[in-house]
Amino acid sequence: MRTEEILKLLRNVKNPFTEMDIVSEGLVTKIIVEEDKTVVYVAFSRFTPRKPFAMAVTWPIQARIVRDMAKVLEDKLGYFEIVDDMTFQRYYPPEEV
């Protein structure tokens, strides 16, 4: 699947706080399509102030966005990852413990 097609799918994911799609809002910063996986980079850390309260308030919103992204992408892509573009924290798939 090409980058443009993935962006089109991600336009269906809305930020529950702003009601804007995450592509127009600038949360999706980069997509790398490789033969065996796709990596979608998001700008969560970039827009979250480094204050405990701000981080606690935004975490449920970010988790919802990741869940919605996974729902949109899981049927169309094979293996994919959702990664923060600054911290490189992997949000999806969930870590196995």
Secondary structure elements and pairings:
Blueprint: H1 3-10, E1 28-33, E2 38-42, H2 52-73, E3 80-84, E4 90-92
Parallel strand pairs: 2-3
Antiparallel strand pairs: 1-2, 3-4
What does this structure look like?
By secondary structure, the protein is an alpha+beta fold. Helix content is 31%, strand content 20%. The chain is built from two helices and four strands. Strands 1-2-3-4 form a four-stranded mixed β-sheet, with helices on one face. The chain is globular.
Order of helices and strands: HEEHEE
How many helices?
2
Structural class: alpha+beta
* Overall geometry: globular
| Strand line-up of the largest beta sheet | 1-2-3-4
Jot down its keywords.
alpha+beta, 97 residues, 20% strand, 2 helices, 4-stranded mixed beta sheet
Describe this structure in a few short sentences.
By secondary structure, the protein is of the alpha+beta class. The chain has helices spanning 3-10, 52-73; strands at 28-33, 38-42, 80-84, 90-92.
